[in-house]
Each structure stands twice: as C-alpha cells, then as structure tokens.
Amino acid sequence: MSSATEKNDALLQVNNVRLDFHTYAGEVKALDGVTFLVKKGEALGLVGESGCGKSVTALTIVGLLPENASVTEGEILLAGENLLAMTHDQIRKVRANKIAMVFQDPTTFLNPVLTIGEQLEEVFLLNSERLANVAAERKIEVEAGKEEQDTSGAAPKLARSRQKKVAKALSIDVLSQVRLADPERTLKQYPHELSGGMRQRCMIAMALARNPVLFIADEITTALDVTIQAQILELLRELKRQLSGSTLLITHDLGVVAELCDRVAVMYAGNIIELADVKELFANPLHPYTQGLMRAIPMIDRRMERLETIPGSVPDLIYPPSGCRFHPRCPFAFEKCKLEKPELLHVGKGHTVACHLYGEGKA
Amino acid sequence: MTKTVLEIKGLKKWFPITGGILGRVRGYVKAVDGVDLEIKEGETYGLVGESGSGKTTVGRCILRLIEPTAGEIIYRGQEITKLKGEAFRRVRRKFGIVFQDPYASLDPRQTIKGALTEPMKYHKILESDEEAVEKAKDLIKRVGLNEDHLYRFPHEFSGGQRQRIAVARALTTDPDVVILDEPTSFLDVSVQAQILNLLSDLQKEFNLTYLFISHNLSVIEHMSNRVGVMYLGAIMEAADKEIIYRRPEHPYTHALISALPIPNPALTRERVILSGDVPSPVDIPSGCRFRTRCPYATDYCKEKEPPLVARQPGHLISCHYELKLSAPIPLAEASRKT
Q: How far is B192 from chain A (nearest CA, A)?
C-alpha cells in the first residue's frame, strides 16, 4: 500500500472502487476494487485493452456513469472530498471547476448547431467573478453609454455585454494556447467546418478554459492520424510544462504512454494489476500480463521474428474468473491464483504489482 | 531473381461528385491518383498511409470490387482490368481478401461452414459438397479453431476468432495473392499478435504473397519485406523495409516515422511535427501533393509534380530534391529487454 508521504501529495485517490453494470445478461462486474492515486502535477497513464475498465474508471471519477451502473463499494477523494458521496449539483460544480475530461471522438461531444465560440464562451460566462477580475486586469471596456455596472450582488458582476466581450477575449487566448492558427476565425466556425485534429484542439481548449486541477484525457489521439496525433501529443507535452494540474491519460497505446506519462497503471479485467514509474515499468515489467502485453506489440526499435502472444481472450465479466482474474491466461498460474485475489503489493521504487508470484518470499 | 506476381501501373480511381437536379458531375474525389507498384512472389508488400490516402481503394481496385478509372493491373503477365465473365472469374480465385471489420465481413445468417464452402462452390474448385466440407474442416483447423466451430454462426465468436474465420475464407480458393486490408485494426494488442503470427505461418505454409494494407506503422514494419508509403492517392516512397524505417529520403516518410510514438520511454529522438492537415482529395495541391505540409517545399514544388523514380535500384522516391534526412529512429536493442 502507498506510504504516508505519498498520500500527502496525492490529488486524487481512488480507493477500492467496485462497480457493477446491470444488464439483461446479468451483472457485469466491471470494476473489481480499483485503487490508485494521482499525484499533484503528474501525468498518470491508465492502460489496458478494451473492456478492462479504464474508461469506466474515468466516468466514475467525473460522475458521468450511465443509469445501469452502480458503485457498490469504495471512495474517490479529490483533495480529501469524496466525489462518490456528492449530490448531482455538487459533482456538476466539480466538473465545472476542478476536473475536465476530453473524450476520444470530439464530434460526439461538440454541439453541431452552435459555433465553437458560442460553446467555448459559455464555459467562461459561468464564472462571473473571474470575468470581472479579468476585465479589471485587462481594462476591457464596452463603448460609452452601454456601461452599466451591476452593483446589486456582493461579488463584482459585469453587465452581460461586457461579460461576453471578456469571454471572447479569454476564448481567443485559450484557442491560441492550443495552437489553433486563426482563433478569431475558429470562434465563428461550426464543428463540421473543422478537421478532426482541430476539433480535438477545441475540446482541449474547453477543458483548459476551466483551469482544472485534474485533466482526464480518454483516448484523445486514438481517432487521429499519425501526423495529427503527433501534433496533439506535442501540444499535451507543452501544456504539461506550462500548467500545474495533473493529467490522467487513458489509452491502449503503450507508445503514447511512453511519450507522455510520468507513471503508468496497467488495468486488466477491472483491476489495477501493476503501477510504476514509466521508465521502471517499461524496463522491468513484473506482472505476467504486462510482460505479455509488451512482447505482443510489434516495436520498430527492435528486431523480432515472432510476436509473443497471450493465449485466449479477455474474460466475460458477468462470470469473471475466480481469484486472480488473469489466471486462465497466465503461463505461471498455480493453485493459489485460482482461489485468492492478489493484493497490490509494494515491491520497491514506487513499483506495485498485484500478483501471487511476488508474495511472501516468492519474488 | 524472384518473379513479379502483381504489377500496377498508373492506377487511378476517381469517384465523381454529382450535384444539382441534373446530377451533373461537379468534381472528383481523387482517391487513387496514379499508383505504380510491383509485388514479388512470396513477399509481403506493406502499403501504409494515413486515412484517406487511398490505400484501401488500391486493394479494392486490384480485386475489381470497384472498377478502376484508369491504369493497368498485371497479374503474372496478364492484364486483368479488361477481363470479363468466366475469364476474370478464373483469375479472381487466385486472390483472397481479408477485410478490416470482422463484424461486418461475415454474413450473420450464414454458418461458418456456409461462409467457407460458398467460395469453393462458386469457383467450382471441388467436385462435390463433401470435398468442400472436408476442405473447410482442414482450413478451420489451420487457423487455430476446430471442426465444431463450422456449425456455428458469426455472433458466437469473438473479434479475434472472427478474423481467423475471415482468414480461412480468404484461403478457400487456394489463392496466390492475399490482400490484407487492416486485418488487425479492430483487435486488441494481445489478439492482434495472435493474428499476425497466424498470417506469417500461413504465408510460409501456403507460399502466399501478401499485400498488407495498414495505417499502423509498427505492424507494417513487423510484417513487410517492402513498404510503399501513400499520401493523397499517390506513392511517395517505396523501398525495402529497412530503408523506409531507417534511412527514408522522402520528407513525408521521415515525418511519419519520426511521429510514431514508440513504447520505450528511454528512447530520445528528434521529432518532425508536420503542420496542418491532409488536404482534401477533391482539391489536390498543384505540383507535388505533399508541398503544403512539407518543411522543405520551394516554389518549384508548386509547379511540377515530381515523378516516382528509382534513385537506387528498388528505392523509389517522388521528390524533386535529394534531401539529407536524419535517422528517424535509433536502434535501441541494447537498451531494452526482450
């Protein structure tokens, strides 16, 4: 388990979260006690194959689960506050101010009938206090005569027309921050007029607009071509240097993880099975699944005649295997693996692994 | 000297865009705009490119699943784009194809037995139904499934198993050339590895020639002997795999390889990040089609389209300049465990 010092610089703690989906076929036990933490300022990669629960974990954090999902156990703490205990309105506020999430397919998450400007300015218009501060700082004025300071509220509040002007200025800022060539023009465009890469930049801009403490990126480069993916990865690298927040990067691509993350958590069938610093994990993978995964991908920086494979396929989570969920596919499985679920075990250098091979004296 | 199995010369496929009440042709989507390639016996030719580069269209034109607009396709010395009826049927059975999406490429209402025996009946390869079933049994075992699976329907299989069935089906007519159109892009990495190994095994066993189409540069590198890099409907560079990945001479190839995220955090390298997006295939830039994103483009590139020429034997490049480009990836065998 993680030490006390680690807990202190934790931004997000996910503790033993279990989650079921109710379906006609039965209960899908999608998360089986997921535990990890995201430190302040770091980029944590969450990797695994489809159906391993990585996206569900992210949706649980931001409270966007579908109706047939229920969390049966566990807590998710953001700076000490349990997100799972929050009401609808509270978690909505968290999404507005603290956690921003960007998804794989930007087309689905942009409103096709509103311009980018309308959608982006809305984000700023929700926060009138910030608008007032920015207006004062930058001395943004409206034309004489239209000025009508609203003094009824306690906090300084600007008139609507002036708010919009400030929101537009901020939108242009954030669009140039994501390296869109012509932000003023982009503001007036509709999503269909933009390319996939540009749309994804707009989504990232909307996320940044809120100054989030945690930025969750769910497969954000998967739908993009290699050269466009490279542009977005470069942007994320740059933003990581500039911004102070943490990033949770969800992907199935170990290449993307190697390029962007500080630490990596590997998921399999609803469990975190290994977690380590990125260099440590790639140099010294301990869990048989992680090892198998790394040998199964063709890599262009090394010669190999034949890929190693992991036999079988991902288990059906309505009837998950007993004990360690990986045991039916594991070449090293022994009796204990069928009976007992392995706990995440600290094996040094910030490396944790959930496997009986590394239990008492076994390593 | 190995024989050339398949040669493509000046292949074009322009899809017309019609509009208005009269349905007049307003323009063309130039999906494939002059492709030349040559595939040798027993090799795997990797065709790589970003989405919309026309690589899938090339594959479909070869089988004439869509009719090419212009160009020649020569299979073992015979021009096949003009063949009709029975004559073409005899040639086509020498080709197999595996599609990207194993959920769409199998008929949900047909058993696996049906899917495997139908091509044999159509091409009249075997005398009787019994023989066809025997052969189907043999093939299903070769792809790592068993006889019982013949009597099931596609929905009973996982993605990886379906792709195995699709591979078996491609082999039913004893093909010479198999076109693999993104055969693993729908699969997870652990299953992808199984399919790639299977394809390598079958290639040796049946002495097949592969045209492997993919956007995944690592998969292409693993599978191919030679690689052609496509951009906006044309080949930019084609050469042995080693040259394409270690010493590319076309700026697009160079940028493509250097942009690929490599799963090795210990590796440091220079990245070339291309600006902008791929232009629309309706409105291909004048001169060199890559010039709008090329970091080395000059005014001359606007005027004249560079021909695809061999600088060294077997290394074709479509670029006006002989650029000195750095190695896009250092070999790091020493720094990693296998």
A: 8
Q: Which domain covers residue A297, as residue numbers?
A: 4-98+213-224+242-358
Where does the pLDDT of residue A363 fall: very low under 50, low under 70, confident under 90, or very high at 90 and above?
very low
Lowest mean pLDDT across A2-6, A108-112, B123-127, B276-280: A2-6
Looking at every residue in chain A, the average pLDDT score rounds to 87
Chain B 299-328, residues with CB within 8 Å of chain A CB atoms: none
Q: Are strands B4-19 and B24-40 parallel, antiparallel or unpaired?
A: antiparallel
Q: Is residue A21 part of a domain?
A: yes
Residue where one domain finishes, among candidates A162, A197, A232: A197
pLDDT tens for residues B173-222? 999 999 999 999 888 888 899 999 999 999 999 999 999 999 999 999 99
> Could you tell me if A218 and A79 lie in one domain?
yes
On the question of pLDDT at A145 being above 80, the answer is no
How many CB atoms sit inside 10 A of residue A10's CB? 21
Structural tokens at position A225: 């071509």
Query: What ipTM is given for this predicted complex?
Result: 0.84
CB pairs below 8 Å between A and B: how many?
A: 140
- What is the average pLDDT across A222-235? 89
B280–A contact, CB cutoff 8 A: no
Cα nearest neighbour of B330 on chain A: A301
Q: Mutate one of A179, A235, A301, A330 to test the B interface: name it (highest B CB count within 10 A).
A: A301
A142 and A220 fall within a common domain:
no
Do residue A226 and residue B262 have CB atoms under 8 angstroms apart?
no
Task: Tell me, yes or no, whether A327 lies in a domain.
Answer: yes
List all residues of chain B from 105 to 144 with a beta carbon under 8 Å from chain A: none
Q: Are residues A113 and A173 in the same domain?
A: yes
A55, A122: one domain: no
Residue B112 near residue B154 (C-beta atoms within 8 A): yes
Average pLDDT over residues B284-303: 93
N- to C-terminal Cα distance for chain A?
17
pLDDT score of B226: 95
- Name the residue in chain A with its Cα closest to that of B48: A226
Residues 6+ apart with CB under 8 A from B12: B30, B32, B33, B34, B35, B68, B69, B70, B71
The residue among A55, A29, A34, A41 whose CA lies nearest residue A239 is A41
CATH number at residue A268: 3.40.50.300
Mean pLDDT, chain B, rounded, equals 90
Number of domains in chain A: 2
pLDDT above 70 as % of chain A: 91
> CB of A320 within 8 A of CB of A269?
yes
Indicate whether A73 and A125 sit together in one domain.
no
> Are residues A79 and A119 located together in one domain of the fold?
no
Measured CA to CA, the distance from residue A138 to residue A57 in angstroms comes to: 40
Contacts of residue B257, Cβ cutoff 8 Å, sequence gap at least 6: A300, B217, B244, B245, B248, B328, B329
Identity of residue B302: K
Q: How far is A12 from chain B (nearest CA, A)?
A: 25
Burial B12-25 (b: 16+ CB within 10 A, else e): bbbeeeeeeeeeee
Could you tell me the pTM of the whole model? Answer: 0.87
Query: Which tops the pLDDT comparison, A89 or A300?
Result: A89
**Domain stop point among A136, A162, A197:** A197
